[in-house]
Amino acid sequence: MKSTETPFQLPLHISLRDDARFANFCATGNELACNQLQQSASGEGETFLYLWGGLGCGCSHLLQASCHLAEPLGRSAAYLPLEELSALGPGVLEGMEHLDLVCIDHLQHVAGDPAWEEGLFHFFNRIREQGNTLLIAANAAPRQLAINLPDLASRLSWGVVFQLQPLADEDKLSVLQQRAAARGMTFSDDVARYLLHHASRDMKDLSLLIDQLDQASLSAKRKVTIPFVKEVTGL
């Protein structure tokens, strides 16, 4: 049964990227995971999903997309990137079990920390008792993380586990050009390939780079060409 208490209000300001949406995520190779996440974010699917994959595979994008999807449906949601919150301690989880959806990202950042592991174990039990949805992402499968608390390691394997597959280069090129077009820019194939081969291959970093180029292009009133990319970014 759902709690009748007032929904917990997150005291931390964690901003979601506005462009982290299911609509602009290239799901090639990850169609089932995306479908399951959308169902869970809507309150209609599994109440616990675990995503894992290498740098730039899209875990963070999908967790934030899940929050974006939940909120217009009247479902309270929180995105918790542990690489930013780990220093605050597991007390940040207190009361969050009353939220409809909690997305915990970068679990590997607290693996091996006794206080965090115990806090996560108890939080897992509390949110499960409330019947609310928990989505977790990390860079490794549950059994491959350096989790020392056996009960937590066991809990992490209870849900549906998805390994996200990285995008092929051609798919990344398409995503880069789509995101540039969404900002009113035109990236030639040559510019997109140059960015892909000289910049970070993490899609989050590439998105930030597109933002930088967009601002520079508007300010200088110049097209985005390879020489312009070199001038602005030093790549």
Give the strand content. Answer: 5-15%
Estimated structural class: alpha/beta
Helix segment count? 9
The level of helicity is 40-55%
Q: How are the strands of the largest sheet arranged? A: 2-3-4-1-5
CATH topology of the largest domain: Rossmann fold
Report the principal-axis shape: elongated
The appropriate CATH architecture of the largest domain is 3-Layer(aba) Sandwich
**Uncertain segments:** 1-9
Q: Supply the number of structural domains.
A: 2
Separation of termini? 55 Å
Element-by-element helix/strand order = HEHEHEHEHEHHHH
The fourth-level CATH homologous superfamily of the largest domain is P-loop containing nucleotide triphosphate hydrolases
Using only C-alpha atoms, the radius of gyration works out to 19 Å
Descriptive report:
With 235 residues, this protein is an alpha/beta fold. It folds into 2 domains: 31-163, P-loop containing nucleotide triphosphate hydrolases (Rossmann fold), CATH 3.40.50; 169-233, Orthogonal Bundle (Helicase, Ruva Protein, domain 3). 43% of the residues lie in helices and 11% in strands. The protein has 9 helices and 5 strands; from the N terminus they run αβαβαβαβαβαααα. A 5-stranded parallel β-sheet has the order 2-3-4-1-5, with helices on both faces. Helix 8 (203-220) packs across helix 9 (226-233). Residues 1-9 have low confidence and may be disordered.
